[in-house]
Specification:
By secondary structure, the chain is α+β, with helices and mostly antiparallel strands. It contains 11 helices and 13 strands. This is GNAT family N-acetyltransferase.
Length: 341
């Protein structure tokens, strides 16, 4: 029996989200409520592709169609929202043999590409896989260019002391200075208003550097409202009542990820603001039973030097691209679609 693809509608939210409960690749952004928000914010058309073998769900692949004039592109995740990864989430029940796992995944991705070609016929396609999905050969066999990408993940096992011991001596020193400071500061996990406060800090920092900031200021707040409590977690640090820094996390269940924020604090603030925010995020995550803390991204050497202070391991994922115009045009096409989206 072959794998059948269905583009499921809003009336099947529970069925979609239920399948995610059995996928080690699912992220908070795979949830139906998040997908609808991503489509609205990016001006794209959402296609929720769900694969079945008979009545059994095999996997899901949310894709976002962006159309400009006569041309169309497919993204997962959509551009300009700083969603690090999305792509397919395969349903895993029990411990299937390698042959069965490969056959089902190949059938699902082949059927998904058949749908994409027949329904959208895109000029360009880009998919970024979730971490933990270490086999993306099916995309290569569907004429995609596959390249590895990376992020940093800190192991939270062993408790707070063990995690802190894996930090560099410089990070431990700065954290100790902050904790022993006589400055009157507080760190708190807050609600909707804090998402906008953090975003204003990030946008201001980018404006100071003369760099574009594509993420809509209200986007994390709208995700905060759409998702379940605790899936988006905004933290702020106040000195004498004034916000001087913040960080927005997303919580996938096992892993908490530092998504937006942690920009350079004001010059007059004599505190290691970002180290204190990261440590608070880590300690809260440990208390909730999380096993990993992601310092999202590992593609900027300057930022990498800072992130490595927190004892992370390099973790890989994949970016898959395809263009009808040939490999040499991939980057040009991507920039064209993103610029005019």
């Amino acid at each position: 029996m072959s794998i059948e693809i269905e583009c499921v509608g809003t009336d099947r939210h529970e069925e979609w989200d239920s399948a995610l409960e059995h996928s080690p690749h699912a992220t908070v952004f795979h949830r139906c409520a998040a997908l609808e928000q991503l489509a609205a914010e990016s001006g794209t058309e959402l296609h929720r592709l769900m694969g079945f073998k008979g009545q059994e769900p095999i996997g899901v692949l949310p894709i976002f169609e962006l159309r400009k004039g006569p041309f169309s592109a497919v993204f997962s995740p959509p551009p300009n929202l700083w969603i690090p990864r999305l792509g397919p989430a395969f349903v895993v029940r029990g411990d299937p043999k390698q042959r069965k796992r490969e056959r089902r995944r190949q059938g699902f991705i082949d059927a998904a590409f058949e749908y994409i070609e027949d329904t959208i016929d895109p000029k360009y396609l880009r998919v970024r896989s979730p971490t933990g999905l270490d086999d993306v050969r099916q995309f290569k066999w569907n004429d995609c260019t596959v390249r590895p990408e990376y992020t940093y993940v800190t192991d939270l096992s062993g408790g707070k002391d063990a995690v802190r011991d894996r930090f560099t001596s410089e990070a431990r020193r700065r954290l100790r200075i902050g904790q022993e400071s006589e400055s009157e500061y507080t760190i708190s996990e807050e609600g909707l208003d804090a998402t906008e406060t953090v975003m204003h800090h990030v946008e201001s920092r980018y404006n100071e550097q003369g760099e574009p900031f594509p993420v809509p200021t209200g986007f994390p707040g709208r995700l905060y409202e759409a998702l379940q409590p605790g899936q988006i977690r905004p933290y702020v640090l106040r000195v004498d009542g004034d916000v001087v820094g913040g960080h927005i996390y997303y919580d996938d269940g096992d892993t908490i990820s530092g998504w937006l924020g942690n920009v350079k604090p004001p010059d007059h603030v004599d505190l290691p603001v970002n180290e204190l925010l990261i440590w608070r995020g880590i300690t809260d995550a440990i208390e909730r039973g999380r096993t990993a803390y992601e310092l999202v991204g590992a593609g900027d050497p300057r930022l990498n030097r800072y992130k490595l202070h927190f004892g992370p391991e390099l973790t890989g994922f994949y970016s898959m691209e395809r263009s009808g115009a040939g490999i040499d045009s991939l980057l040009q096409l991507y920039r064209w679609f993103v610029q005019y989206s």
